[in-house]
Amino acid sequence: MNAEIPNAFTDLGLGKVGAMPDGKDFMTDTSRVNTAIGRAMWSDKVHHSGARCISWTTPAGLAFERTVLYMARASETACVATWREVLKKIPAGRLVLADRGFSRDAILYPNFNVHLTPCFLTGRDQFTSGEVESDRRKCELRYTSETAFSRVTCTTGLRDSIPRSLFTIMEDMCDWGHAYINLCAPMQPPSGAPEGYFNNSKAKEKKEESKRKRRSIIKEQKRRRRESQAEVATAAQRETARDSEL
C-alpha cells in the first residue's frame, strides 16, 4: 500500500492515509407511489428527490468500496454505519482523510481508523492561521475523492435526473460508474509507479502526428485553391484582352 501513496501525501507527512470517503446524491424522479417514500428520497444536497451513495477511494483516486444506494434522506453517518463490517478491509493504523461530515465516524470502522478532517470553529470567531494552512493542504489532497464522482457520472443513466424506468438497474449503473474510475489513469500518480508510466507518451505522439498531418492537408488544400483562383483570374484576363482586340 505504501507504493500506492502519491508523493504529494508523503511530502506533507500523510503517507499513512489509506482511504478517503465522500458522498454523492444522484437526482431521481420523485416516487408518486407513497408520500413517505417521496419524503425519504428528498435530498437537502440537491434539493430534489435522490439516491445517496458513499464511496471510498485511495489517495491516488482509485475506487475500492461503495455502499448501496440509499434514499437520500438517510444521513451519511447512517450510511457508513450500515457498511461497518465491510470497512474492516482498511488496515489498522491507516488514516482516513475526510470532510467535516465524517468527523465522528471513526468509531464505525472496525479498526477505529483515525479520521483527519478540517478544523471546527467550536464557538470561536475565526480559525488560526495554522489551522487555515493545514485545512487548505488537506482539502487540496482530498480533491481526488470528490472528483472521482465526475467519472461515475460519465455513465449516461446517472446524469441529470434518473428516470423511474431505470430504477431497477440503478445499482448496476453505479457499479459500472465506479469501475470506470479504475479504468482511467490515476488522478495522482502512485509513488511506486515507474517514471513516465502514466504519461501515455505513445498516444500523445500519435495525436501530435495526426495534428501535423491535418495541418499539412489543410495547407495543401489552401495552396491548390490559390493556384486554381490564379488560373481562373489569368484566363479571365486573357479573355478580356481578346475581347478588347476585337
Automatic annotation (TrEMBL):
The lineage of its organism: Eukaryota, Sar, Stramenopiles, Ochrophyta, Dictyochophyceae. Residues 194-246 are annotated as: Disordered. Its cofactor is a divalent metal cation. It comes from Octactis speculum. Residues 212-226 have a biased composition (Basic residues). InterPro entries: HARBI1_dom (IPR027806). The keyword Metal-binding applies. This is DDE Tnp4 domain-containing protein. The keyword Metal-binding applies. Residues 35-172 form the DDE Tnp4 domain. Residues 202-211 have a biased composition (Basic and acidic residues). GO terms for molecular function: metal ion binding. It holds the Pfam family DDE_Tnp_4.
